[in-house]
Amino acid sequence: MTATVVVGVGGGVAAFKAATLVREITRAGHQVRVIPTPAALEFVGTATWEALSGAPVYTGVFEAGGADHVEIARNADLIVIAPATADLMARMRAGMANDLLTTTVLAARCPVLIAPAMHTAMWEHPATQDNCQVLAERGVHIIDPIEGALSSGDSGKGRMPEPEEIARIALSYLPSDATIPMPSEDHSDLAGQRILITAGGTHEAIDPVRFIGNHSSGRQGIAIARCAARRGASVTLVSANIEASLLPDGVRIVPVVSAADMEAAVTALLPEVDIVVMAAAVADYRPLAPAQMKLKKSEETDVPQILLERTPDILAGLARSPQRPACLVGFAAETGTREQVLAFGQEKARRKGADLLVVNPVGQGRGFGDVPNDVHFLDRDGQVVGSASGSKDDVACAILDRVSAIVASTMER
Ligand code: CTP
Prior knowledge:
It is built from 13 helices and 19 strands.
């Protein structure tokens, strides 16, 4: 099905990357309307955008032969803004309408996806973080910047993810035949709660092309994220290497790759959340010194020795943190007989210190991928307090029932 996508371009160095974004969305068969801000034209000119999109390009509401912002907004199935500068985010947060892009955003009712990009200092500034939080609470989907080399020559968080990655995420917001079923109930017991969910599996680099990973698809965490959003929570999903087409609507996505990235993301977001659900499969070990160049075989050296080190235990760290969230949920993926699975889970519940540990048997066709799940719930002392089985959506709802009860009991105290 052909959709109409507005690609907004902010005035940052990463504006040139939006050309690839436009190309990828067009290549997927959708119509693109590019709306740069006036500052964006300092980086890439109108002619480029018109050639790539095959549509006229304006920056102002009152330009000669200009565009009708209400019409553009009404026809849009998605607005994706890349790069979103600090200034553009501030204007969006304030509800300003001083160019065609902000006016269109204000008039639009479709999903809005933004990829902020700026210097680390600007990204970390409380004003930008606050704007980001408010926009996310209003339903704007934010693709967090990544760490890397910046145009200033510095290195740090603020770099826009590659446009192919943004395109993959953007395309997942467009209507498709493969819609994921929603859980049946529709209550708002989590309204006002800010929930952070980690999902997927971390990748630990061996060299630039190889990594240590695991089989986690992220589906159980995604089901929890989707269900929590439906129940009124403001949801942030820290997504470790999850296929973009699986990512849910209506949640803030923070992409990470490694256990270290995940720990940094969770630590940074901790002051803004009430509930943390650690559904991700985090690697326990990583190569001590990842090779800078691809490891090569040679006749003399047959098998490389890769020294590993332990990764931080994020969940246990959260349980001990002075900023411990009101409700902390962990997972335990275990193999073996039912008794072994429960015994491993009980030991883990006592060791980790989460309010709830969701124990699920994995391996031999169980647990990973698009399969039903079968879990036990353990409290902090390792006592079995319940169980749930069924689709990952069913299990997600059962987990959130428990979370809701824990949050209610902490409020009573
Ligand atoms: N976890 C974490 N940080 C790690 C490893 C795991 O935060 N470095 C979290 C997972 O997200 C999950 C819980 O801890 O919520 C249990 O993960 P699991 O892999 O089952 O347990 P481990 O602590 O790794 O123990 P083991 O591998 O010995 O079973």
